Write the structure tokens for this entry.
Amino acid sequence: MEQVIAHILAELKKVENPPDDSSLEVVLRVGALAVHSEAATRTAYEVLVKGTPLAQSRLNLTIELVTLTCASCGYQGPLPQGAVDPHDQSPLVECPRCGAVTPVQGGRGVEGIELRWE
Ligand SMILES: [Zn+2]
């Protein structure tokens, strides 16, 4: 999360006429395995932006669900939150359709950062 804030602050510095921070909106999309929970991510954001030009900004947060693709039966679908331990480096889950153990892909990184203002 620190890296995300650093990135946004660097982007903000490039803006010629920086807007008032209360009109700033940070649009952030992160993978479900990259964060503990939405609430924890919002709390971390609020702590990290204190005293920065982003202090009054709004966080528009989207958690991207991890998708399971089963090699055995071709099932594709989002995984419910908590189905995978985020600390597990190569998590495996059982396919909800055929029960085959399938590696989980994606969901780890920051998938999009965007700075908006009015
Ligand atoms: Zn399957």
Q: What stands out?
A: The beta strands are 24-31, 58-64, 67-69, 76-78, 92-94, 101-103, 110-117. The CA atoms of residues 45 and 91 lie 27 Å apart. Residues 2-14 form the longest helix (13 residues). Helices lie at 2-14, 38-49.
